[in-house]
Amino acid sequence: MPAMSKDVKNRLLILGGWAIFLFLLVTIVMFQFLVTREESSSPLTVDKGLEFDVVESFVAVFTAYNTVPSQTDESFCIAANRADICDRTDVVACPRKYPFGTLIRVNKKVYVCVDRMKNDNPARFDISFDKDLKGARQFGIQKLMVEVVTIKN
User: Fold this and answer.
1) SS (HEC) of the chain
2) CB-count burial class (<10 Å; 0-12, 13-18, 19+) for 93
3) What is the pLDDT of residue 20?
4) Of 5, 58, 73, 90, whose CA is between 20 and 30 Å from 83?
5) What Cα–Cα distance (Å) separates residue 3 from each residue in 6, 7, 8, 10, 109?
6) For the residues 70-87, what does the mean pLDDT come to?
7) Percent of the chain, pLDDT > 90?
8) Distance between CA atoms of 38 and 96, rounded to whole angstroms?
9) CA dihedral for 75, 80, 82, 88, sign (positive or negative)
10) What gap in Å lies between CA 59 and CA 36, rounded to an integer?
């Protein structure tokens, strides 16, 4: 076998290093995706028979959105916390100060915070009307009393 030049050996070492780096990067990304998907794929629905304690109450601006590509993005059924929100009307996009899973009560209905508002709307809430375009349009923009609640023990 003919001897390789030092330049060829160095290039092969660099190429091998990049191949290992890319393999590890892809492995880590896939692992993170699977772990995140496992943690958030279970629906966070709210049972109507539950009782709640009010943690905080205030008036806030509410809008409505639909789980359709024209109002979100190409993954319109996947919320910011990676939960599938299609066919659900118990979810809300919340300001970033509220962690995912926060329960919000508005007009006697409890919603779960699973999505985020854009940074240009830091104090607004956006209720999912799923595919009900007419209902979302009729809801419009409203100032409503909000209660941040927790489930009573």
Assistant:
1) CCCCCHHHHHHHHHHHHHHHHHHHHHHHHHHHHHHHHHHHCCCCCCCCCCCEEEEEEEEEEEEEECCCCCCCCCCCCECCCCCECCCCCCEEEECCCCCCCCEEEECCEEEEEEEECCCCCCCCEEEECCCCHHHHHHHCCEEEEEEEEEECC
2) buried
3) 77
4) 58
5) 9, 12, 10, 13, 76
6) 71
7) 18
8) 22
9) negative
10) 33
Confidence (pLDDT) at 26: 62
In which residue are the tokens 């299609």 written?
86
pLDDT in tens, 16-69: 777 776 766 666 655 554 444 334 433 445 656 788 889 999 999 998 887 776
Chain-centroid distance of CA 74 in Å reads 14
Q: What pLDDT, on a 0 to 100 scale, did the predictor assign at position 96?
A: 87
pTM of this structure = 0.64
Q: Among 121, 128, 124, 134, which Cα is nearest to 45's? A: 128
